[in-house]
Amino acid sequence: MPISHGSLEPLRLGRVTGRFISASVALFAASTVLSGPSHAGNVAPGDTVTVGAGDTAETWDIQNDATLNVTVGGMIQQTGVFGTLNMSGATATPTAAPSGYTINVFGGKANIVNSTITGPGGLGVSGFFGVPGSAAVTDSAIEGTSQAVLVQHGSTLDMTGGTVKGGTHGFELINGSDVTIDGTTITSGGVGILAYAGTSPGAIGSSVDVRNAKIEAVRIGVDLQDGSSADIRNTEITTTGSDGFGVRSVASAANLVDTTVSTQNAHGIVVQNGGSVNATNVTVMTTGDIAHGATAIGAGSTIRAFGGTYSTSGINAAGIEARNGGHAVIGYDPRTGAGTVIHTTGNSAVGVLLQNGSSAEITGASIETNGSHEQPYWAAAGVLAIGGSTATITDTDVKTTGDKDAGGVVAEGVGSHYDMVRGSIHTTSATAAGAVTFDGATANLTDVTIVSEQGRGITAGDAGSVLTMNGGSILAKGSGNEQSAVLAVRGATINVNGVSVRSENSNARGLHAFNPGSAVNAVGSVITTLGTGSHGGFASGGGFVAVTNSNVITEGVGSHGLVAQNDSSVAATGSVIKTTGADSAGVYLLNDSSAVLDKTSVVSEQGPALQTAGGSVVFDLKNGTQAIGGKGTVLTAASGTTTTLTADGKSYLGGDMVAEAEDAVIDASLSNGSLWQGAAKGLTSASVDGTSHWLMTGSSDVGSLTNDGTVEFDAANPYKTLTAATLNVNGGSFILNTKLNEGGAASETDKIAVTGDANGIGMINIRNNGGTGAFTGTGTADGIQVVQIGGASDAEFQLGSAAVVGIYDYQLKKADGQNWYLQTEGNDVVDPGDGSGGNPGTGHVVDIVPGYNIALSAAQNHVLTTLDTFHERLGELRSEDLEDGFHAWMRGIGKTGSYSPKSITGYNGHGFDMTTAGVQIGADYSKGDVFVAGDKLTVGIFGEYANSSFDVRGRTADGSISSKGLGGYVTWQEKAPTDRKPGAGAYVDAVVKHDWLDFGVNAKSVSGFDLRNGYKGKATSASIETGYGFDLGNNVVLQPQAQLTYSKIRADGFTDNYGIAVHGQEAESLIGRVGVRLEKTFYFGDEEEMFEVAPAKPIKPANSAKGKKGAKAKTVIVPLPETPKKKKFVKSVTTFADANAKHEFKGKNGLVASGTGIGNDMGGTRYDVGVGVVARVSENVSLFGRGAVEFGGSTNVAGKVSGGLKITWK
């Protein structure tokens, strides 16, 4: 019966035949007619016949229910078994002209032990009328010149040990047969084990279990077809022919465990037509070309390799292959966790080869190829997916060592794709890449480690090809232009995200995009190159390289950070570009290329940050980008080049811009808050917008300069010149370093030199560089020249800030009608400060200095205004009104006046106007009969806040003084002679207080700029006052007074924002006052209804101190009989007028401003007259107030008001 083995290209298998021969049919026919007793050659039903040693060998027919026992040494010839055959130590040999199988079991049973069966066919086991046959063979030898063993039609065979040798088949299993083989050696000139369904109606595949066996076949070790199955364990399978394979599963299933498959010029394992092979810890070794270790062919065909080793040595001999929709699963041995090892040594021998829509799942494998690339085949890649095939690769290590194009993991063609997670790729060939996509293929790698000894790390080629790598690392050790760690060509795209990219050799590339449409995008990655001429990112031939949130670091000589050439471009966003090698630029452009740098830092330690090497290029810096050049150079441009540089959005340029030849063109612009710190060396044009800043560190030359922002001459290297052919300034400013002195031949200053025309309106800000100021004069050639214009001088300049030094205030003037000078005028007389008493010099004292000086004079008034007199502080507080106990009070003070102190130096002094407002709150305690009977001693404290403002007359200076103070006082008052004579008697009042002062002084420079400064000070003041009231009758009292007041003020030293050093600020005052007060008291309310009665008996006060005089008899006031009291709102009102003369015994104040002493004298005698009122509104509450006018001495005129409230309680 013919058996189809299918077709496996490029193998060509013929058709094999197995059948029972005519003798079998004859035996079958005989069995149907034999009857009667048993005789030689026939065993009748129910009989048992034994054949032993020495018996004649005969042909036997064993009937149903019959038994033939062949014992040791027994021999038989062809035997048909419908009953039972037992052989032990026997031999079965066919007749002289044999055909068919020597032993044929037809629905019967055979037990064969230690026996030998030979013939054209050895042992056949078949069913008979639906009854399957069975055989058990142990330690026996079966040999057939054709098939050795045939099992069919649901029959079974258990074979243990022994040998099977077949000319064409060792075992042939047909139609549902079940065979178990354990420890048997099988040798075949064709197929070791063949299992299939056959052609019978309803036929099915067979099954075989193989244990501990050894199979040696010329063509096929195990061949499963038509849904057959095999479980093969601990078995060695060897084939030697070139037209076969070790194990084949055609629409069948095989399970191989701990098995070895060796072939010569043939595939190890083949799966076809939807079949499957599960191989666990299987070792497959093939030799010969196109001899794959394992292959799955066609849709639904699956090879599963769990652990084990797959080794091939021939050309184009893949370790594991899947094609035409086949599928491969490569994983761990579930028992041990060992991964699968795939190793090929032949040229063009791929580790895992996927073709024509096939797929693979690879986990935990180790794949190594050692072969080179041999045409016309593909290179010896570790994993190759082509023709729309796909692979998922996890925790796998791939290594290739071939010398031509032996890529690690490769996908080629539209629809081809692989995903690789973790694991590693290691290549050694100079033309190999670790991970590759071509011709529209795609790939994703995650956390993979790639090492390329001589070639590229990852490569993508052709439009539509996309390779994405997330995490992991790439190390490329090769040298040469092609040895890039990352390379995209011919329109492909590579994305590396969070990857460490490292190139260690010379003339290599970290990232490389070549050809139009090619792009490399790096995000969150670190790109490092070490070798000479090895660039971090390289775009050429229209390629594009972009780095985002990444670091690009190069260490070799001539190794640039980013390079774009020949219509290419590079971009960096949120990244760091750093070069440390000599002659290495941060970004290097040539030949119509461009760079966009966004939120990026470019730092070149030994070369320019930006470099133009040829053609026309564009550098676009934005959003806070920083470009800092080594050796002080941010940009160089070679001869014949054109460079456009824009710095926008708070970008920073650190270093000089240098045109290396006169024909080099550099057009630079700063916008939106950008800053350039460096010098211009041959710039064609420079533009600074209204928000940007150029900090010029060296003398510079620019063809056309437009300054709408700020150009600042660096203070570290003063006295530079900015030369421009033309200047356009639109509200822009220049900050110059100048030694502010007398000018002329002594001038030392930065300078703006315009060789052509100057237009617009600009500001000049002067930073003094050690000058002490001087009178320059105001002639056409006087002063310090800061702007020189050679052409039309249509530009207008003015100072952008005050030019002040010491006490001198400089102006900017177009003194000669063409150029601009700093000059001072001579309005003030000042002490030359040399101590010689020589003639005073001349010059304009800056207005803030008179402000500082007048602030001291104003502080004297401020402090004394709140010190006042006893009555102004507390009102008319009579001893007789004071109950023993506590009192609280508060009052407000206001004063305004005009003052003209005298100057105590050669400086022309100034008067000032001043207004003060303040409030005081206090509390005290009174105790009676302390020193004499009826006296009162009061001890109190108070706090205050006051604020003064002043204006310096004839100057722009003004200022303010605010203070917070604490004070204490002690007051002694003598009791009036009688209760109806209030206010008479003596008093003594002593006060001390301390104030903390805050000064604020403002002024304008001669050019109209606001000058402001604030500083602090302290003041201590004290007063002692006495007076005596004389009773004039009719409730009128005349009270002479005397007072001595002292104050000391010290203000902090400082150097203000304008360079004026101020120290020695002091003011001191000692004022003596004499005056007289005349008062009249009016009584209201309850007192009008009282009358006096006789004095009561004198009594001694209970609280009188020992040794004091006793109290005299008190007059008792009693109400009129039967007359009701009339309550009035006001108990009493005292009106008064006073006049005082005050003489200042000290009154001087002064300071030293930048070495010049300036001071005032507030001395002299001044007078004041005042009126006031005290209203006692209840037993415990009084209101008081006073108004006065002051004049004389340093006071032109001043007015003052004060008023308050006093509350008393026991």
Automatic annotation (TrEMBL):
Q: Which domain of life is it from?
A: Bacteria
What are the entry keywords? Signal
Give the matching InterPro entries: AC_1 (IPR043990), Autotransporte_beta (IPR005546), Autotransporte_beta_dom_sf (IPR036709), Autotransporter_adhesion (IPR051551), Autotransporter_pectin_lyase_C (IPR012332), OM_autotransptr_brl_dom (IPR006315), PbH1 (IPR006626), Pectin_lyase_fold/virulence (IPR011050)
Record-annotated Autotransporter domain positions: 881-1209
Against PROSITE patterns, the record matches this protein to: AUTOTRANSPORTER
Matching entries from Pfam families are given as: AC_1, Autotransporter
| Gene Ontology CC, one term | outer membrane
Where does the signal sequence lie?
1-40
Q: What is this protein called?
A: Autotransporter outer membrane beta-barrel domain-containing protein
